[in-house]
Amino acid sequence: MVRATGWLLAAMALVAVTVGIGLPANAATTAQVADVVYVEEAPPATDVIEGEPWVGTAACNGDTIRAYGKQGCKKRGTAVRQCYVIDHWEYFHIAPSGSIWHIWNGASSWKEMPHDGQATNTYGCAYNSGRVGNGVAVLYGNSIWYSYQKYNPANVWYGWFPV
Q: Could you report the per-residue pLDDT of 37-69, keeping only the tens digit for each?
């Protein structure tokens, strides 16, 4: 488990910006990092169906997956993770392009995460001070990054932050 307080995360983001350590161009570095208290590695989801024939119109240059009855295409060798986000469960995966995708019960299809995040694999879940899940963590090379939602307004994802 990686554990860091809000002030430590903000300090790490400031140091990373100051010295330019591996931050993607779309990295967020605002004070919003205090809304996530810690990030915890999560095991790969075991209830996702993998390996079905692809039925999409565009080619799948990865492995097919299915969650909540919807098919997706993930990067080979990466894991699908399930995180509790505010009041529901979501699955997360990395597409062959490196973009980050998620789905929740009731979604019409897998959706690309906002803020143009890129990752090499999924990692785990992000939590606030009340131990309530509110986000996802991914790997970008050797660094862990996360995005999260707040209770109010719900359904708004905040940028990508380094741990």
A: 788 999 999 889 998 888 877 889 999 999 999
Q: Tokens 């090499």 sit at which residue?
A: 120
Alpha-carbon span 126 to 39, nearest angstrom = 4
**Residues contacting 82, CB < 8 A, separation 6+:** 42, 45, 47, 89, 90, 91, 92
Q: In what order do the strands lie in the sheet with 63-67?
A: 49-50, 63-67, 70-74
Higher pLDDT, 87 or 153: 87
In this prediction, residue 115 carries a pLDDT of 93
Greatest CA separation for the chain: 47
Q: What is the pLDDT of residue 65?
A: 95
The DSSP annotation for 103-156 comes to EETT-SS-EEPSTT-B-SEEEEEEE-TTS-EEEEEEEETTEEEEEEE-SSSTT-
State the first-to-last Cα distance of the chain, in angstroms, to the nearest integer. Answer: 12
Six token digits for residue 117: 């995040």
- Could you tell me the CA-to-CA distances from 51 to 31, 34, 66, 67, 155 in Å, in that order? 41, 39, 9, 12, 30
- Measured CA to CA, the distance from residue 161 to residue 9 in angstroms comes to 9
Amino acid present at 149: Q
